[in-house]
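Suppose you are handed a protein chain with no further information: no name, no annotation, nothing but its sequence. What can you learn? This example shows the usual starting point.
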Amino acid sequence: MQLNVSISKETDKFSQLCREIKQCLMKKLLIIPFFLLLAAACEKSGLGPDASRQPEGEIYHDMIQLGEKLEDPYTVANMQEALTKVYPTKAGRVEISATDYYVRFLPKDDDQLKALQSQGLYLMDHPML
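A reasonable first move is to predict its three-dimensional structure. Written in C-alpha cells, the prediction is:
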C-alpha cells in the first residue's frame, strides 16, 4: 500500500512538471511568431522610398502643390453665417470677432527657422488656406 502511495506522489510531481514545461514552451512558441512578424514588417530604407527626398539642413517651400485658391472659411462673416444657421436664436446676441492673425514666414536657412522657433510661435509647414 505504501508503495502505491509513493508512486502516485511521484507521478503527480512528474505530471505537474510536464505541465509547467508545456506552458513554458507554449509561451515561447507564441513569442517566436511575434518577432518574425515584427522583423518582416521592418524596411531597410528607414522611412520608405521618399525618406531621402529632402536633404537635411535645407528648407523647400515649393514642395507643396496647391490647387485653386479657395474662399477662407474662417472669416468673421462665414463664422457669423454658420452661427445663424446652427443657433438662430443666439445669432443676434453673440458678437464674433477675429482672435488670431496668421502670417507667412519663408526662412531662407536653418538659422532663420531656429530664430522663429525660439520666439515661441506656433509654426506649421503648410499654409492655413
